[in-house]
Amino acid sequence: MSDTTKNNSTIRSVLATDCGSTTTKAILIEKVGDTWRQTWRGEAPTTVEAPFEDVTNGVVNAATEIQELSGRRLVNDDGTIRTPERGENDGVDIYISTSSAGGGLQLVVGGVVRSMTAESATRAALGAGAIVMDTFATNDKRPAHEQIERIRQLRPDMILLAGGIDGGTEKHVISLAERIKAARPRTRLGGGFNLPVIFAGNQEVKEDIKDLLGDVSDLQVVDNVRPVMENENLGPARDKIHDLFMEHVMAQAPGYDKLMGWADAPIMPTPGAVGLIMQTIAKERDINILGVDIGGATTDVFSVFDEAFNRTVSANLGMSYSVSNVLAEAGLPAILRWVPFQINEKQLRNRIGNKMIRPTTIPQSLEELKIEQAIAREALRLAFIQHKEFAVALRGVQQERTIADAFRQTSGGNSLVKMMELDLLIGSGGVLSHAPRRIQSMRMMIDAFSPEGITELAVDSIFMMPHLGVLSTVKKEAATEVFEKDCIVYLGTCIAPVGPMKPGPVVRVAWTADSGTVSEEISDMALKRWELPEAEISITVTPLQSTLDVGAGIGKPIVKTIKAGVVGVIVDTRGRPDIQLPEDQAIRVPLLKSWVKALDEYPLSETEEVK
Amino acid sequence: MAAVFTPGLQVTEKGVIQKDRRLPLEGEVTVSMGEMVTAETVVARTELPGKIYPINVANQLGVDAGRLKSLMTKTAGDKVTEGEIIATSPGFFGLFKSEATSIVTGTIESVSGVTGQVIFQADPVPVEMDAYINGRVVEVIPSEGCVIQSNATFIQGIFGLGGEARGEITMVAKAPSQIVTESDITEDCKGKVLVGGAYLSVSALKRAVEVGASAFVTGGFDYDEIKDLLGYEVGVAITGGEDLGLTLIVTEGFGEIQMAPATFKLLKAKAGMMASVNGATQIRAGVMRPEVVVTFDEASAPTEIVKPPEPVGIQIGDKVRGIRAPYFGLLGTLKSLPNEPTVLDSESKARVMEVTFEDGTEAIVPRANVEAIKG
Fold first, then answer.
1. Would A262 be classed as within a structural domain?
2. Per-residue DSSP letter, A248
3. In the 8-state DSSP scheme, what is residue A250?
4. How high is the ipTM of this complex?
5. Does residue A478 sit in the same domain as residue A330?
6. Are residues A303 and A419 in the same domain?
7. Looking at beta carbons, which residues of chain A come within 8 Å of B7?
8. Element containing residue B371 per DSSP (H, E)
9. Which residues of B touch A358 (CB under 8 A)?
């Protein structure tokens, strides 16, 4: 780390970068008068590809862009970041960074029972910002020799081994360690050292584990992730993963040794930093929150429902490196159903393939933008499905069920994600943060997540949540101020009735505000938008069909104060829990076009304007 | 001013290249420093460990795990053959004796007194690694492999399928814009590295596999055909292990797209010469692009290690090519690099460059949608 760091209280300027798998994003944060503001931003392609195999090239390019735009000198003659600040417009006090370049942090996780200790270990790994390459357990369907073969092939950055509550099973945990030993796993990035293995299982067997793995791995023992069946203790394992990420993974990626020397705080994995910010918002506002960060290679989904934090990473759902995998997993018809024009299928497949092999390109034409946003909807939707399946109550704990629970029909099993109870949906990542019109971000999130009842939506203005996550570890007040003032953009509120729907009027929305009085009935299969000058309004939503719920119970009206945001209020009567779109393209495309027009989502083409 | 670091593929008529030849596991290096090698020379060999088979022998014998070690007739490190007795239980007063046998020919890795598990490892599988290119050994990495250096023509593609292959370069297309069809592939293509033009039809590719061609280098190919050929979709561009019947190298992209004239010209100039090709592509984490390597006369192979030139950005006057619609595949010259971000047709704001295309038209193109090309 830089040895020129200023005393924390005297810091007045911060340069923060996020080295993503595709783009390196830099922001400048300065104290303007008495408040902290994000003032300038720059970005450049991430340089881990030959001939620029040094991540600092991308960092310097992004910083240089800010330097050119702001007039503040940020890069020294020798190509290093200029810290500390030397005077007005000369240098910054500290430089900090997050990173997900080079595939991020990749882990293999093990536990005795797949749905119990292995799941707790997976949660710890994901919470630390890792990609879980595989989870093995004594009860997964693979025979032991196949597990060993798989561990050999994977070459993770580290292994997290849990298993057994404290004082619980010993034999099964040791058996898992024996499998790791037999596999003799090696690190992904090579080098002459042993693979880090974190043991976070039954503490009664830690000496046996040391005997088995002490010589063949860099073994670290931490507290059990599941010390008792009823509780998880993920913190120690998560912290150890962060430490090892810095020591082992970052230290070997191209150029990172240099970058670590420049940075004034430990480099955090990007998702770890975003998770930190999400948890802070949920806690400070006491709300249920769902967040998504869609990147080039992966899509992360975060949720905090009733204070339970969960994060999932869909390792192969993204908008550039993994874009073809979105096509493979969703299928072409699923993507095409969001495209508001006819397109040759072969041509579309080739375009998606070309984005995969040239991942840093951006949509120049409107048509390309619409295709990209259609793909994004499917990437987000698939990532959310994975999240709902993972974010569940602790299994293995006896649950008390009431008669009401027994009669309640839920499709999500014991998922903690209950869309009707969601207060705020936040989007981040290039395709959402940089959509030319904010309505496009709102529409993508509504289509992908199908929010139910009344839900507030927001977007990370220019993708700075990772930067603020790492900043919060150095200067919390600066991170909080910038988050509210410059980072989060409140898009507005979505109102969506849930339940079986007949053709005809579905809901009545009514409010009175300075800008006027509205009382309107909305029919089925519609999207309706109101742009409002007010920041907040008190709205009454009344279901017009006895089967529908808008948040107060089936058939009951609701009165609520909602945020209007930069987009406004959108009523969505296309059906919930799943949006129903016509399969016939000849019917669907005109319908999609009518929604585009109703929402003012894209500029109309000349022919559309004539119509 | 910021350099414009736009990724470009290498197309080099004559340069010094180095190839790392490393074993997947430690082994024996069979060449020495300074030695001249051909592509077929074995430079290192090793033995890949055999498969692991954990068997709970304590359960088989019906004894507590803690007693297992005392009942073993073989111990960790011992060689065993399939069916050989490795442990016996005494039974009751000499009755109900039971015995456990090895399920593989190999070695006993470990015996656990806690779980009762015995881990067997099958005999290792020998692996040899060749030099891949003609050249000189300029570095020996003890127990791991070596570095081969050579004067060579080096051409990178954008995407490939299949691993390392060799063959004589044979031009199937007469021009970089040609579409190669089935009828262009003849029996003479056997064992050859074939060079096409703007597009290779799937029937032509299948015909090339049928006649036993070694590799195919083409400008464009249809993305959806890959699924039909492999039986699965390539969702993430990490390739090299596909069993396609030949190595496929796409130099420009998916769809119909003229091979870069410099690439075509260079391959044409090398027609009749032996080439080493590799389709392995990795666009995430440690980028790897497919390649065609044609080495020069072995005797001229340099002995000094030459470092690659320092990267420089694209400059005004450089040749560029559009790599995304609506200018995908079009060649042009960089006219200017405006500093201020510009609003595009999509309404996105991005840093751009002004390009004069070959037909004389000019356009504003996002810097991210252009790559530098040589020749």
1. no
2. I
3. I
4. 0.84
5. yes
6. yes
7. 45, 49, 52, 358, 360
8. strand B370-372
9. 7, 158, 253, 323-324, 371
* B339 to A170: CB separation less than 8 angstroms, yes or no: no
| Residue A505 covered by a domain | yes
Q: Which of A141-145, A504-508, B44-48 has the lowest mean pLDDT?
A: A141-145
Q: How many CB pairs under 8 A join A and B?
A: 196
The minimal CB distance from B346 to the residues A183, A352, A368 is found for A368
My answer on whether A365 and A466 are in the same domain is: yes
Looking at CA atoms only, how far is residue A331 from chain B in angstroms?
Answer: 11
Residue A85 to residue A67: CA distance in whole angstroms: 14
Strands in B362-366's sheet, in edge-to-edge order, are B362-366, B352-357, B331-336, B319-322, B370-372
Alpha carbon separation from A174 to A220, B61, B107 (Å, rounded): 16, 20, 21
**Structural domain boundaries enclosing A61:** 8-101
Rounded to the nearest angstrom, the minimum Cα separation between B11 and chain A is 13
| Cα–Cα distance measured from residue A147 to residue B119, given in angstroms and rounded to the nearest whole number | 13
Residues 236-275 of B with CB under 8 A from A: 236-237, 253-255
Verify that A68 and A153 share a domain, yes or no: no
Q: How far apart are CA B167 and CA B277, in angstroms?
A: 8
Provide the token pair at A61: 């390019």
**Residue whose tokens read 């909080």:** A480
How many domains, chain A?
Answer: 3
CA B140 to chain centre: 22
From A253's Cα to the closest Cα of chain B, the distance in A is 9
- The model's pLDDT over A280-305, given as tens digits with 9 standing for 90+, comes to 889 888 999 999 999 888 898 999 99
CB contact under 8 A, B110 and A362: no
Count the neighbouring beta carbons within 10 Å of the beta carbon of residue A280. 18
In this structure, of A253-257, A309-313, B179-183, the range with the lowest mean pLDDT score is A253-257
Tokens (6 digits) for B60:
């088989």
Strands A13-19 and A94-99: parallel
Please indicate whether, in this complex, the C-beta atoms of A362 and B324 are within 8 angstroms of each other: yes
DSSP three-state, residue A346: helix
DSSP A463-498: S-HHHHHHHTTT-HHHHHHHIIIIIEEEEEEEEE-B
Helix orientation angle between A117-127 and A270-285, rounded to the nearest 10 degrees: 100
Q: Which residues in chain B (160-179) have CB-CB distances under 8 A to chain A?
A: none
Tell whether A336 and A473 lie within a shared domain.
yes
Which CATH number covers residue A148?
Answer: 3.40.50.360
**For residue range A507-550, what is the model confidence (pLDDT) as tens digits?**
999 999 888 899 999 999 999 999 988 888 999 999 999 999 99
Residue B322 has a CB neighbour count (10 Å cut-off) of 22
Tally of CB atoms within 10 A around A356: 25
Helix (H, G, I), strand (E, B) or coil at A68: helix
Min distance B23 CA to chain A CA atoms (Å)? 12
Q: Which of A101, A134, A159 is the last residue of a domain?
A: A101
Same domain, A89 and A187: no
Q: Does residue A225 contact residue A237 with C-beta atoms inside 8 Å?
A: yes
**Is the per-residue pLDDT at B189 higher than 90?**
yes
Sign for the CA dihedral angle at A48, A54, A55, A58 comes to negative
> Per-residue pLDDT for A20 more than 50?
yes
Q: Count the neighbouring beta carbons within 10 Å of the beta carbon of residue A606.
A: 6
- Residue at which a domain ends, from A84, A101, A118: A101
Domain assignment present for residue A440? The answer is yes
Contact list, B224 vs chain A (CB under 8 Å): 345-346, 349-350
Say if residue A514 is in the same domain as residue A533: yes
